[in-house]
Amino acid sequence: MRLDAFRVGRHLMKRPQSVLLNHAFSSTRRDKAGYVLLGAGAAAVISLFISIQHIQADMQVLSMDRANLSRPSVTRLKSSIKETVGKSEEITAVKAAMGELSRPWEVLFTTLENVQISQVTLLSVEPIPKQKRLRISAAAADFNSMLEYVSALGRQPILKDVFLLEHEYGSDGSPTPIRFVVEAIWLI
Q1: By C-alpha distance, which of 177, 158, 167, 147 is closest to 112?
Q2: Do residues 115 and 159 touch, judged by C-beta distance below 8 A?
Q3: pLDDT class for 181, splitting at 50, 70, 90?
Q4: Across the chain, what does the average pLDDT equal?
Q5: Nearest alpha-carbon partner for 182 in 158, 154, 144, 155
Q6: Whether residue 54 is found in the same domain as residue 126
Q7: CA triplet 148, 132, 85: central angle to 5 degrees?
C-alpha cells in the first residue's frame, strides 16, 4: 500500500521544483543595507555616550548645589535677614497707607463744609495720621471771625481738642488779613 500512495503522489506533481540553498559567504556580494544599519548604530552609540557625559556633568553640578544649600552660609543668612526686615517695613508702610485710605474721609469733608463762617476761607487740610491729628489752614477777615470758626470746629462731634496753633496778620493788603492754623484730634 505504501507503494501505491507514492505513485499517486508522484503523478500529482506535474513539474519538479528545485530549491537553491547557498550557505557559504560570498565576497562579491555586499549588503548595502547592512552598512547603513551599522553606521546608524554607531552614530546612536556615540550620541548616547555624549548624552551620558552631559547628564553626569549636570548631576555633579546639582550635587554641588545641593551641598551648598544644605549648609547655611553667613552671607546668605545676613542677606535674608535684611530682606525680611525690608519686607516687614514695606508691609508696615502698606498697612499704614491702607489704614489711611479706609478712613471715613467723606465724613470729615462734610463736617468741614458744614462749618461755614462767611468771613473765613478754608485754605488747606493736612492729616497727621500717626497722631490722629488734623491741621487746618484758613484765612479770616477779622479776629472775631477767626475765633468763631475755631469754636465752631470745637463743637463738631468728630473733632476733639480743637485749638488755634498759630495766626498772623497779613501786611500785603489782601482782603483776608489774618491767616491761621487750627489743630484738632480726629476721632474717627
Answers
A1: 158
A2: no
A3: very high
A4: 81
A5: 154
A6: no
A7: 160
Percent of the chain, pLDDT > 70?
Answer: 78
Domain assignment present for residue 35? The answer is yes
How far is it, in rounded angstroms, from Cα 113 to Cα 133? 18
DSSP state of 30: -
CATH number at residue 146: 3.30.1360.100
* Model confidence at 124: pLDDT above 70: yes
CA distances from 150 to 17, 20, 100, 114 (A): 131, 127, 25, 13
Is 84 within a domain? yes
Model confidence band, residue 80 (pLDDT cutoffs 50, 70, 90): confident
The dihedral sign for the CA sequence 166, 144, 158, 124: negative
| Residue 153, domain extent | 105-186
Q: How many separate domains does the chain show?
A: 3
Residues 148 and 168 reside in one and the same domain:
yes
Domain match, 182 and 110 both: yes
Decide: 109 and 158 in contact? Cβ < 8 Å: no
